[in-house]
């Protein structure tokens, strides 16, 4: 479950257990996706609902430029060099920040993912965003085997953390909650960066889980395989 502090958001992906990298990392990321529960106070709830309703980004970065920068990130990651990954990650953030006319968040690229172990399971930290520092941190090695993480997984984490920054700096969602809209906006940037053909892209399907939502992974997969 995502863990909220006053100034930090941490992303724990409950689906990726230590030492077992999912075969399709983007699926692994999606499968663990849930929304936060709506807040109690009326004001926070209004912002939450506005975030939930904004399922697409109206403005998008130049596709060609984003895809070129994403390709350089993939190359850098393949070398396993943290500094190169940071440089190419910063280049993506610079383009996004310019697109949305907001400040460029800082980026730290770290090595082995922190791991949390308790009775219920084991969780790895993929990335986080520090509100005060306006700083994104991403980890590029898996917790146990210390293998370089998948490109798609790293890209998704980077864009997810950027969307927290965009929420606060550009969209006016200061609490930057994980809503269906939030995940939809991340998905927009992710598929644009990967140049996913529009026909292959499926809308995120959500099912209720108490007062929150989670991705209906089965439905998403079924609609994908039904396309073949
Ligand atoms: Zn998050």
Offer a quick outline of the entry:
The protein has 228 residues and is an alpha+beta fold.
Walk me through the structure:
The structure is a single chain. This protein has 228 residues and is of the alpha+beta class. The chain is built from seven helices and eight strands. Strand 1 (3-4) and strand 2 form a beta hairpin. It has helices spanning 25-31, 42-53, 63-79, 82-100, 151-171, 180-194, 217-225; strands spanning 3-4, 8-13, 106-112, 115-118, 121-130, 135-141, 206-209, 212-215. The relative contact order is 0.19. It binds zinc ion. Zinc ion binds next to strand 2 and helix 5.
Layout of SSEs?
Elements: E1 3-4, E2 8-13, H1 25-31, H2 42-53, H3 63-79, H4 82-100, E3 106-112, E4 115-118, E5 121-130, E6 135-141, H5 151-171, H6 180-194, E7 206-209, E8 212-215, H7 217-225
Parallel strand pairs: 3-6
Antiparallel strand pairs: 1-2, 2-5, 4-5, 5-6, 7-8
Helix pairs in contact: 3-4, 4-5, 5-6
Bound molecules: zinc ion.
């Amino acid at each position: 479950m995502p863990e909220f502090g006053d100034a930090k958001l941490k992303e724990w992906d409950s689906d990726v257990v230590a030492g077992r990298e999912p075969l399709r990392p983007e699926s692994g990321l999606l499968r663990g996706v849930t929304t936060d529960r709506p807040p109690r106070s009326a004001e926070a709830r209004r912002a939450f609902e506005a975030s939930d309703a904004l399922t697409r980004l109206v403005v998008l970065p130049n596709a060609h430029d984003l895809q070129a920068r994403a390709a350089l990130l993939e190359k850098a990651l393949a070398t396993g060099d943290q500094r190169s990954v940071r440089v190419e990650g910063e280049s993506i953030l610079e383009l996004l920040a310019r697109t949305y006319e907001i400040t460029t968040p800082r980026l730290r690229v770290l090595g082995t993912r922190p791991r949390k172990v308790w009775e219920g399971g084991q969780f790895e930290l993929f990335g986080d965003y520090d509100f005060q520092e306006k700083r994104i941190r991403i980890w590029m090695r898996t917790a146990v085997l210390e293998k370089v993480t998948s490109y798609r997984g790293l890209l998704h984490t980077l864009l997810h953390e950027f969307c927290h920054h965009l929420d606060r700096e550009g969209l006016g969602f200061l609490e930057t909650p994980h809503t269906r809209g939030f995940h939809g906006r991340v998905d927009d940037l992710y598929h644009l960066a990967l140049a996913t053909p529009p026909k292959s892209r499926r809308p995120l399907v959500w099912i209720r889980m108490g007062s929150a939502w989670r991705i209906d992974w089965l439905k998403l997969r079924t609609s994908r395989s039904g396309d073949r």
